[in-house]
Design brief:
By secondary structure, the chain is an alpha/beta fold. Helix content is 40%, strand content 18%. It has 5 helices and 5 strands. It binds 1,3,4-trihydroxy-5-OXO-cyclohexanecarboxylic acid.
């Protein structure tokens, strides 16, 4: 099973960026934790981060070419703005779970809307770094049910 995690803008700043909102784990910590979870489950995991919308679109499209079975995406602020990311997820039709470290629904009203959620399998938010593990478990459960 091949899963790819895609992190959007400013998530490379985790650990430094508003720790009271996003916690003290760095992106490397989160990826390392997810890699060890993936290893136990026999999942082939790749991780990618970019601050650029077009790069993120390219990575979603590349997932189709690479035979990725499931995507985990934290689109950062593009969650609330990007029709391009939504269309890319819709175009590749790879089961995708949207993850947010913070509870976007308990924050500013502009964060309450996700352009991606309607084309995703589900959304996990407010669970901090644990959300990525939960997303992987949910994806695997979904993918195994489909076989
Ligand atoms: C975020 C929530 C977004 O609203 C914000 O722009 C981020 C991080 C989260 O993980 O909680 O960059 O996606």
């Amino acid at each position: 099973m091949k899963i790819k995690v895609i992190h959007g803008p400013n998530l490379n700043m985790l650990g430094v960026r508003e720790p009271e909102v996003y916690g003290r784990h760095t992106l490397d910590d989160i990826n390392a934790d997810l890699c060890s979870h993936a290893k136990k489950l026999g999942v082939d995991l790749t991780c990618y981060q970019s601050n650029h919308e077009g790069d993120l679109v390219d990575q979603i499209q590349q997932a189709l070419t690479d035979g990725i079975n499931g995507l985990i995406i934290n689109p950062g602020a593009y969650t609330h703005t990007s029709i391009a990311l939504r269309d890319a997820i819709s175009a590749v039709a790879i089961p995708t779970v949207e993850v947010h470290l913070s509870n976007i629904h308990a924050r500013e009203s502009f964060r309450h809307v996700s352009y991606l959620a309607p084309v995703c399998l589900g959304q996990i938010c407010g669970m901090g770094a644990l959300g990525y593990r939960l997303a992987m478990d949910g994806l695997l459960n979904h993918l195994s049910c489909r076989q």
